[in-house]
Amino acid sequence: MRKLYFISLFVFIALASAPAFAARQCYSPAELNAEQTLRLHSELMVITVTCKQGSRAQDLVSAYTGFTRNNIEMLRQAEQTMIHYYQNIEGSDGIASLDTLRTRLGNEYGQQIADVSAPIFCQRLRDLVLNDYKLNPTQVADQVQHMIMTAQPYGHLCTYAANTATKPDPAPKAVAGLGIGTSSNYIASNAADLLAKN
What we know:
Blueprint: H1 2-23, H2 29-51, H3 60-70, H4 72-90, H5 95-116, H6 118-133, H7 137-150, H8 159-162, H9 186-197
Helix pairs in contact: 2-3, 2-4, 2-5, 2-6, 2-7, 3-6, 3-9, 5-6
C-alpha cells in the first residue's frame, strides 16, 4: 500500500508540473529569431566547408569570415539568447545545449549534401555565401525573417507570444567568462579553422 502511495504521489507531481514545464519549451519571438540567425550562420559555414569556391572561383572562406566579422554582434546576441533559453528550461549553463543546436543545424545541411551530392549542392548554393557577405545588417535581418517563414525551427512559437504585440524580449544576461561566440568560442574558432584548412 505504501508503495502504491509513493507511485501515485510521483505520478501526481509529474502530471502537475508537466504543463508548466511544457509551456516554457516554446520559443519567444526573440528566441525564434536567434535560432534562425544561427541557422543562417551554420548554413553559410557548411556551404563554405563543402564548396570552398564560388561559381567564379571566389574564395568562400574569406566571404564567410567576412560575414561573421560583419555580423559578430548579431551572432553573439543570438547565442546569448539561446543560452538564456536553455538555462531557463534546463537549469544548466546552456552552453552544451547551444553546441548541440549548432551541431543539429550543421547536420541538417550535411544531410542536404548527402541527399543531392556535393556538386549539385554547391551548384545551387555556393554563391549564397558571397551574396550574404555583401548584405548590410537590415538585409541580414530580412534574410533571417525569411528563414523564420520557411525553415522548420526546433521549437515552436509560444501562443502567448504569437497573440501579443511584437514587443522585443528583454536582453538576456551575458554569461560570465564567455567571450566571442560563447559556445566554446564557436564563431571565432570556425573562422580560424576554415582559414587554417585553406
